[in-house]
Amino acid sequence: MKALLTAIVAALLLFVPAGSAHAQFGGLERTEVKEGYQLKPGAVQILVFRPDVHVGEQTTGGMNEPNAEWTQTAKAHIMAALEQEHLARGSQLVMVTQEDGEMGELVADYTALFGTVANSVLNHKMVRSNRLPTKRDAFDWTLGEDAARLKALGGDYGLFFYTYDSYGSTGRKIIQGLALVLGGGFVPSGVHIGYAGLVDLDTGDLVWLNVDTSMGGDIRTAEGAQKRVAQLMEEFPVRAEGVVVPEGTVTFDPPLPPDGPVDDEPVVASPTAAGDGQ
Amino acid sequence: MKRLGKLFIALALAAGLTTPAQAGWRLVEKGEERKVAGRMYVTPTEDWNRSTIRPVSRSEVWTRDGRELNDLDFFMGIKDGKPLFRETHRKRAPLPKFDPAMLPTDIVEWYQDTANIVLGGSLFAITEVKPARLAGYDGVHFAFSYTGSDNVERKGEVRAAIIDSRLYLISFDAPSLYYFDRNIGGVRVLMDSARLKR
Amino acid sequence: MKQFAITLAASALFASPLAAQDVAAVEQVADPAPLPSAHGYEPQDDLEKGLWYEMDEAERRLKQSKFLIEDPALNDYVRGVLCRTVGEDRCPAARIYLMRTPQFNASMAPNGVMLVYSGLLLRMRDEAQLAAVLGHEFTHFEKQHSLRLFRNMRKKSDLMAWLSVAPVRLPYAAAMATQFAVIGSVFSFSRDMEREADAGSIKELAQAGYDPRAASAVWSQLGAEMDATAKERRHRSNKKRGGLFATHPRTTDRMGTLAQLAEAAVPDASAAETRAAEYRAALGDWWPQLIDDQIALQDFGGTEYLLATLAGGDPAGWTGDLLYARGELYRARAKEGDFAQAADFFRQAIATGDTPPESWRGLGLALMRLGNKPEGQEALRSYLTLRPQAADAALLRTMAGETLS
Predict the structure, then answer these.
(1) Domain membership of residue C321 as a residue range
(2) What parts of the sequence cross the membrane (chain C) (predicted)?
């Protein structure tokens, strides 16, 4: 029975990498931006892939009970807040809804790859103890140049985002209090996880990723959703100053980030290296 | 509950889907010949990261961007009667064991069966098998494809040979989108560079 | 990872018919609520709406899963069997997805999504057996067992939390689950629910004109297969344990009840159909692929039992396909004497005149392991003539002593 609960809670926790990091540090909030990266000047169109929003209630036992009404309300609030946030930044959001055919498959494949890439960034960049030496000073993950095929959907950037909320029910909040008093340990009341990532579709490069496993803002309300979106969009790349390129002309070159490899630092060989003498 | 959790982690680890949280990583510099897990020497053509944790004895795990994105594994000298990975469920999900009498085709099937058991699915397919040499010994080179639990389609290649009754095997796999094509050239050169020093 | 995790979320909430354990008794629903199989049914309360919403989202992802078998003919067939079993007016409530996974399982979510694993298709001997499982599933769905279970569980877990005031650690690590999680996240229905689903499947079978004895046959086959696996691997049979991979504990009581129900429903089953030939034809080209999936699991005992079941306990039932599969099974186990046995099965397979060309490959490789290189090479050359484009043709050519071109 417990195993079953576990499976359900785990499965509903969907966002895997945030999970592992959370377990390790009890909360994680990190943003990575490609150094010096700026959006192109002028009108920017951003494709929004699968805006995943899940809201439920955490029962006293810790199980998540999905709530369709909350989810739908929250989704509407979040989308509105997101639109507003980006309009203020001078960019336009294009919702990607197409699910069928070749393009649908392409979107699915890149969405899956994005999740895996984001997972790697979390594991190997944001979790410091697990950081890869070749990535120490670089944020150079990518979906590959072929991601440009997604531009056919009508945007120059791809925004992937996801939020998962499970609100503590009253019973759970009481237990939380009791547990603290009685020394039973910390019972998290509610789970609030979110991430957002931006891909430059000209290069396929992941230029910005924000992960937060303890988000604020009650997204069931308009104000809360605005707060959440503001949090999610922290350190979102700004637009480059410059002349707006008229349509049909040659593209403007965005400022190039400093080149990738940073491995020339000497690294002390590990004493456990290579299992000599076997 | 614990059981399940453990099983998942173990399987994910064995399947190369994740990396132990405590793993440390060391830089492997390109162009320098390097001893791998005991006996074999290889010369990488690009910089890699090497995990300080080994899946089994005489093995090493390398990656460039994260194991989910490019996973280069070395198994250097698997002995008679040993499986490719550590067995997490010896009784209920035993892994096939290596036998020095195996034909080159048997090595391919053994790898495939191991992958099928570890991945628990059946989308693992061998796409090409040809004779090849590893460190100057006759062996096999094969290509495969599979879809992992993250629904990301991956491709991979393996070079293997039985030398003095032990199996030496280098395997690489990466998402079909972008990552495989970016790395496979360098990996094949690395496989070609392998040699044994006595 | 994310996308799959969502698929996972769906599967976690799927109801599987195959597990029965002690769970609190089913709450009896007194008022005649609309059945979820009714046309235009809408979820009734907040909990059901929430579950449906998550399920619908998950279904959208499921459609993109690379594990889906998309073959329209096979999908049409399975749908046809369900419709024949529960009737044309009720079957549209179910949306069937065939998953390429070698384990024996099927499940149905509260919103009507039905998962059928390819391992189930491999194990059914005839259409009536498939109908029995689909009918069983459909009953779980129509009686809203998973919904009731979710409510039940909620109460129960609340109680546990109140009693212990123990930190409920959220199992983040478990979310890294691989494909196994899907199989593992099996619902444990109560005995009453299972009884209800059993009775439901018998009723459906009888009404559809299928032989209702198929139901008890499915469970006895599965129990025997688990015994065979356990014997070879020297562990306790899975049929005796719960939890992960616990599929269907065969209780004598339950088997007896099923048989009695079948007897009562159709006293003279001689006119009832099993449609074995139709079933075999429908599986057609899929069968060799599914048996390969099974052989790859290296479950010698279980697979050996399975093959014998499919041969129907009749020496003449050993077709070229089955003999080939048996040869592959022995060759893969590679224990003492296995290569000689394997070579024998491959020879028998070839003698039937209707076997996959891979029998020649198997024969060649088995002979070479036996030290009979000339004959082995000759068999490999026969295979290469039949399948010059095989994935491993280049390697086999060198092994067969042909020069590389």
Answers:
(1) 291-399
(2) none
* Burial (CB count within 10 angstroms: exposed 0-12, middle 13-18, buried 19+), residue A255: exposed
- Specify the pLDDT at position C161: 35
Contact A67 C50 (CB under 8 A): yes
CA C241 → CA C226, C227, C238, distances in Å? 11, 12, 5
**How do residues C370-402 score in pLDDT, each as one tens digit?**
999 999 999 999 999 999 999 999 999 999 998
Q: Do B26 and A275 touch (CB under 8 A)?
A: no
Q: Residue B139's closest chain C neighbor by CA?
A: C395
CA separation, residue C146 to residues A1, B104, B129, C109, C343 (Å): 13, 49, 47, 8, 49
Angle among Cα C86, C91, C96 to the nearest 5 degrees reads: 115
Chains that touch C (3 or more CB pairs under 8 A): A, B
Q: Which amino acid is at C247?
A: T
Q: Do B182 and A144 touch (CB under 8 A)?
A: yes
- Whole-Å CA distances, A131 to A15, A61, A260, C286: 20, 35, 16, 45
Cα–chain-centroid distance for residue A69?
A: 24
Which helix H or strand E contains A198, and what residues bound it?
strand A191-200
HEC-encoded secondary structure of B165-181: CEEEEEEEEEECCCHHH
R_g of chain B, CA atoms, integer Å: 16
Q: Are B168 and B160 in contact (CB under 8 A)?
A: yes
Residue C286 resides in a domain: no
- What pTM did the predictor assign? 0.72
A contacts of C63 (beta carbons < 8 Å): 99
* CATH at C341: 1.25.40.10
Structural domain count, chain B: 1
Question: From C24, which residue of chain A is nearest by alpha-carbon distance?
Answer: A1
* Closest-CA distance of chain C to residue B40, Å: 24
Question: Which of C46, C165, C176 is opposite residue A20, by nearest beta carbon?
Answer: C176
Chain C, residues 161-180, CB within 8 A of chain A, namely 161-162, 164-168, 170-177
With a cut of 50, which residues of chain B have pLDDT below it?
1-21
Closest CA to A1 of C193, C152, C140: C152
Distance from CA of C36 to the nearest CA of B (A): 31
Tokens of A190: 């509610």
C184 contacts in chain A (CB < 8 Å): 3, 7
For the CA atoms of chain A, what is the radius of gyration? 21
Confidence tier at C85 by pLDDT (50, 70, 90): very high
Contact check, Cβ <8 Å, A15/C171: no
- C324 within a domain of the structure (yes/no): yes
Q: Return d(Cα B28, Cα B30) in angstroms, integer.
A: 7
